[in-house]
Amino acid sequence: MLKTAWAVLLLSAVLSHAAPKPAIVQGPLLWTADATFEHLQQIVYQPSEQSKPRRFWYLILTVNNNTGKDIEFYPQYDLMTESFEILPAGKRVPQEIFEIVATLYRDKYPLLESTATADNRILQGEDNARDIALIWSDFDSGAKNVKLFITGLSNETAVVNAPGTGDTSQRVYLRKTLELRYHLKGDAAWRSNGDIVYQGHQWVMR
Predict the structure, then answer these.
(1) Could you read off the pLDDT of 191-204 as tens digits, one per residue?
(2) In b/e form, how buried is each residue of 136-173, taking b as 16+ CB within 10 angstroms?
């Protein structure tokens, strides 16, 4: 298992340098949905005095389909730290955390969806925009930089040779992905009081 994990991390690192870039001008069959977001936040959950507090991280994503046609939406939401720890949204996240976030944003996002219940089709127009809460469990307390990867907002793909294998028959499929970057300020022991600094975003093939 450990050997496999390191192979995945190595592949991700190599692809990040060798991957092609998304098209500047999309072809007639390609589409990309519009995406806006509330920045990354943290929440500490302690259901009882006897239980140990647990930290979670969340971001609210709004997806608007202005592509001119209804689109299929099969997303993937990953959080990656500088040490290459990768966490998918929703993993080890109790339903209660989504309910807390939904209550906090009830007035602004009354139709907020979770990643577990979000529909896989987005209709055209602003009236059909989707608001989705992306929630991750806590990660390495020493991490200072995280990247969020949101895949599924576009149907643009690319195929490259698997790096480091020497076998051109082994291919890797990449998807156009929105990458968000954040820096965590302050000491890890006082993370609840630290600032989360947004450092920009870009489209990548991942």
Answers:
(1) 666 689 999 999 99
(2) bbebeeebeebbbbbbbbbbbebeeeebeeeeeeeebe
Find how far residue 51's CA is from the centre of its chain: 29
Residue ranges with strand state E in 46-129: 54-64, 71-72, 76-81, 86-88, 113-114, 121-122
In the chain, the DSSP E strands lie at: 34-45, 54-64, 71-72, 76-81, 86-88, 113-114, 121-122, 130-137, 145-151, 157-161, 171-184, 196-205
Which amino acid would we find at residue 91? K
8-state DSSP, 53:
P
What is the reported pTM?
0.85
Neighbours of 81 (CB within 10 A): 17
Mean pLDDT value of segment 21-45:
91
Domain count, the chain: 1
Q: What is the pLDDT of residues 41-96, one digit of tens each?
A: 999 999 888 889 999 999 999 999 999 999 999 999 999 999 999 999 999 999 99
32 phi/psi in degrees, rounded to 5 = -140, 125
Q: Are 137 and 87 in contact (CB under 8 A)?
A: yes
Q: Show the domain range for 115.
A: 2-205
Pairing of strands 113-114, 130-137: parallel
- Say if residues 186 and 193 touch (Cβ distance below 8 Å): yes
Alpha-carbon gap, residue 64 to 32, rounded angstroms: 10
